[in-house]
Amino acid sequence: MSLRRLTAVLGTALLAVGLSACASPGGDGGSGDENAPIRFGAPLPETGNNAQYGEYFKQGYELKLKEINEAGGIGGRPVELVYEDSQSDPAQAASLAQKFVDDSSILATFADFGTPAAAAASPIYQPAGLVQFLFTQSASDVTDPGDYIFATWVSQEYEAPRLAEFALEHGDTAAVFYHETDWGLNTYGYFDEGAQDAGLEQVYTTRRAPTTVPCC
Prior knowledge:
Layout: H1 3-22, E1 38-44, H2 51-70, E2 79-85, H3 90-102, E3 106-110, H4 115-128, E4 131-134, E5 149-151, H5 156-168, E6 173-179, H6 182-198, E7 201-208
């Protein structure tokens, strides 16, 4: 499956999971009006280095949104997504998180693309009691801010060591390139531990700025 298709599928799946978790029969969907739309915040990179991933997210969201609303919405109420351009920038993501927190019509939010942006928003959502669903974030500490932060991806604490074992199945040595971001450092730390335990020799390692390769 191509990265583009996978990302769109993840967007569709996240919307389905979010609606299932948040749209309980007794809830008001963020509004006292029982006929008002159920609204979710959807920060994503519409511009900047990761804009292509924001477009893939939106394709997945819109696919599921159309299906849900054509079937009558949730409890007879339509569902809306409030898109905001984060540029996958932590400062912008934090600003948008506060904007969603201040909007009482927002029931929950979906995570931005990339761990740095999502992690910058989590400490704002948590004390406000606004749910944040993470679905491309896999750093081991992404849910540490608290019980309103939910991750759906396997943590790198488990995934990265398996990658080292997989590499060893195809050779005795490896050259490793990783992002110079919190996510990259976190992931490489677990990969390095796994490589040492498995006996995989790293003949070359280097960090890369996130602008040179797609950012996670």
